[in-house]
Design a protein that fits this description.
Blueprint (H helix, E strand, L loop, with lengths): L2 H16 L1 H21 L3 H33 L2 H7 L4 H30 L8 H23 L5 H6 L1 H4 L1 H6 L11 H7 L3 H15 L7 H21 L7
Helix pairs in contact: 1-5, 2-5, 3-5, 3-6, 3-11, 5-6, 5-12, 6-11, 6-12, 11-12
Amino acid sequence: MSSQIFTIAARVIRQLMRDRRTLALIIIAPLVVMSLIGLSFPEDSILDYIAPALLATMALFFGYLLTGISFLRERSQGTMERLMASPVSRLDIVVGYLFGFFVFAFMQTLIMLLFTIFVFDISYQGDLWQIFIFQVMVIIGAVNLGIFISTFARNEFQIVQFIPIIIIPQIFLCGVISPVEQMPNYLQWLSAILPLTYAVEGLRNIMLSGESLINVGFDLVVLFAFAVIISTLAAFTLRRDYSG
């Protein structure tokens, strides 16, 4: 693995660490959202059932938003143009940013997971460490998705505009709102190609049924394949000229 990857990642981490407002939002935003969700379901049995789906969905949403806006900021400040003019490969750039943004998405997901489980006393069957490892795979995909989508956006508003196209359809089709099995066949086929479907299914199997990571291996493979494909596409879509 190229040393340039870790150099890029370290620079991203240092830059975000200096942005105290962003750090505050990384911590506060998921806590506010999960608090509102938790207080909206007074019955423990309902909250226990929907918690896995919500944790997977929020990990995808916040990971995408954090990465998409931060990566766009790198472009607008000219950092990306300087990197593209250097001998660093496009894939090294993408992976470097992946590692850098992953640190903050990791922190955000950890806070959200622990807060939801312990503050709202969520009942779960699987091991906590296996739940978290599965969530790590979800946020890797979310970070890669944010990098990929941001290559098509020219301002932060466009990053947000992609949410109804990229995130919301997955929420409706992954089984968060209604079981996939009850949907029309064509929606079930569409659901089968969405990463959030496998994130929700795998996390539910761990938290509600006590399955191990080995038992949800297929879901992990799909999420890993999604992350690899999206990061490769992001490397191909990086452009040297971001002006205009």
